[in-house]
């Protein structure tokens, strides 16, 4: 009769078991190679990295740290925004300003110059001249660039404060019996023997050994004096559970041993061990410390698979370290630590395992839990702040000075080497002043026209006279148009006395409209909608 799996071996004629390093999958009734991560995980369970002056419920700093991971994210984002802003301003300088000051490019460049909030009184000036405030496009570009750099560096500084504003200080001191008696902790030990066995193979789990064998402090006691113990069948094998509530482990060394024996068609063999030890204060159950991991072929040997079986015991060594957390109102906590794994009898060759399975002397698997309570010293833990308000303000002021200094140096170099940049503010102001003057002049013409009539404007026209900018034409009584050459550009003569008509006559004159309006621009180029227009009146 053959075995059901290709990775199984036969012993004693009719019995089958898995080969070295293989584990029986009861669902598919096949032997699979046992693979697991042998990394030992340790977590103190003590939260000390949250800022005390911010509510944790409002600001989730753990999610911020997981999202950012490092300060490089803030620095990279700052560099992207900075280069984008400089490229945008560099692109705008190649756009034409125009003469009317109404183009979108002029408006963008004008508003950039208004953003010159850092260097408006620190531009290039000739000697022996009074310092005056002047806002330029280059100054606005560098002002915003300096603020982008400052905000990015400020965000990186805040990240550093959140993650590294405190350091953990450990102070070790000697202890005596009253100090150890105050450590009342709840402990739980879970040891799983990874195998195809069950709790039916378990034997001799009832004895607790304390002290050192051969010395005067050596004692043997029932395991029930330490705490509750049980065995539970899991998908990976039998799990031994030891619980101690409000226990005081004053003894330096604890030994708890058990063994598994052969049963028909269920030999005592394992491919590894899995453990999970957790402790918490009996008074304050909020903080939990644990250590967990898996012990297999790669834990102590090379990567070749092994099977544990035989008389020599497998020892799992753990240490318990008493700690007092001064930063958590004097919390007294026992930290579990994984110390070592001493393997017992094991096999790497299939033939050797087959021989062991057929021998009655090797039909056993021994395991021992060794706990060493480090009672000679107590570690006192406290947090010290390395980033006070004075140092924070000093770092913040240093970042601001660096950002302003970098771009101030670039501004001075640009205006020193390019003379055209020294007077670029006057170019923008002249264009804008010309546009504002034209807008004010158009408002004045409209006011005079509506108040005293069209004849009060004293304008010289190329073709006829009319009300300007309202799509109307003045129709004269004789029906002919006046053709005069304009001597001065759009000015009202206030030097000679005008006989102004009354409002009724002016309204009647300007109310007669015919046809359309043919407008043209005189002098500077104006917007047909917002500027004055000269109309030519065609006879009826």
UniProtKB/TrEMBL annotation:
Keywords: Membrane, Transmembrane, Transmembrane helix. This is Transmembrane protein. The chain crosses the membrane at residues 72-92, 138-162, 392-412. It comes from Prunus persica. Residues 521-540 are annotated as: Disordered.
């Amino acid at each position: 009769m053959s075995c059901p799996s290709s990775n199984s071996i036969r012993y004693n004629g009719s019995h089958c078991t898995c080969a070295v390093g293989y584990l029986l999958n009861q669902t598919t009734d096949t032997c699979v190679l046992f693979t697991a991560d042998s990394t030992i995980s340790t977590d103190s369970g003590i939260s000390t990295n949250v800022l005390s002056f911010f509510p944790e419920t409002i600001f989730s700093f753990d999610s911020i740290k997981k999202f950012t991971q490092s300060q490089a994210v803030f620095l990279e984002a700052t560099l992207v925004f900075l280069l984008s802003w400089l490229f945008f301003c560099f692109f705008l300088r190649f756009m034409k300003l125009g003469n009317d000051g109404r183009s979108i490019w002029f408006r963008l460049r004008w508003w950039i110059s208004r953003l010159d909030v850092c260097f408006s009184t620190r531009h290039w000036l000739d000697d022996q001249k009074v310092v005056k405030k002047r806002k330029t496009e280059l100054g606005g570009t560098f002002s915003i660039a300096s603020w982008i750099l400052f905000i990015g560096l400020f965000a990186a500084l805040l990240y550093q404060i959140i993650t590294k504003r405190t350091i953990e200080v450990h102070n070790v001191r000697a202890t005596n019996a009253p100090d150890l008696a105050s450590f009342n902790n709840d402990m739980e030990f879970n040891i799983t023997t990874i195998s195809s066995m069950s709790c039916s193979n378990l034997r001799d789990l009832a004895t607790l050994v304390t002290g050192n064998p051969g010395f005067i402090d050596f004692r043997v006691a029932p395991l029930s004096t330490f705490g509750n113990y049980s065995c539970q069948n899991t998908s990976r094998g039998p799990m031994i559970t030891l619980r101690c509530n409000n226990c005081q482990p004053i003894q330096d060394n604890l030994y708890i041993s058990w063994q598994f024996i052969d049963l028909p068609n269920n030999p005592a063999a394992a491919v590894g061990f899995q453990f999970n030890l957790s402790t918490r204060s009996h008074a304050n159950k909020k903080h939990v410390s644990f250590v967990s991991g898996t012990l297999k072929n790669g834990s102590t040997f090379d990567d070749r698979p092994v099977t544990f079986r035989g008389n020599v015991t497998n020892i799992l060594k753990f240490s318990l370290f008493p700690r007092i957390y001064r930063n958590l109102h004097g919390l007294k906590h026992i930290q579990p630590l994984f110390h070592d794994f001493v393997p017992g009898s094991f096999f790497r060759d299939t033939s050797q395992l087959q021989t062991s399975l057929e021998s009655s002397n090797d039909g056993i698997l021994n395991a021992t839990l060794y706990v060493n309570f480090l009672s000679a010293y107590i570690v006192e833990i406290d947090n010290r702040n390395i980033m006070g308000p004075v140092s924070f303000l000093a770092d913040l002021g240093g970042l601001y000075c660096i950002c302003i200094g970098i771009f101030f140096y670039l501004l001075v170099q640009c205006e020193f080497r390019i003379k055209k940049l020294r007077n670029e503010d006057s170019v923008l102001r002249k264009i804008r002043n010309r546009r504002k003057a034209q807008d004010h002049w158009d408002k004045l013409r409209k006011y005079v026209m509506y108040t005293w009539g069209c004849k009060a404007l004293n304008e010289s026209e190329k073709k006829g006279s009319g009300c300007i900018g309202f799509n109307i034409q003045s129709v004269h009584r004789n029906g002919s148009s006046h053709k005069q050459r304009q001597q001065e550009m759009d000015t009202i003569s206030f030097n000679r006395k005008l006989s102004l008509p009354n409002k009724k006559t002016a309204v009647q004159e300007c109310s007669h409209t015919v046809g359309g309006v043919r407008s043209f621009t005189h002098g500077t180029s104006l917007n047909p909608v917002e500027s004055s227009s000269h109309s030519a009146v065609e006879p009826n």
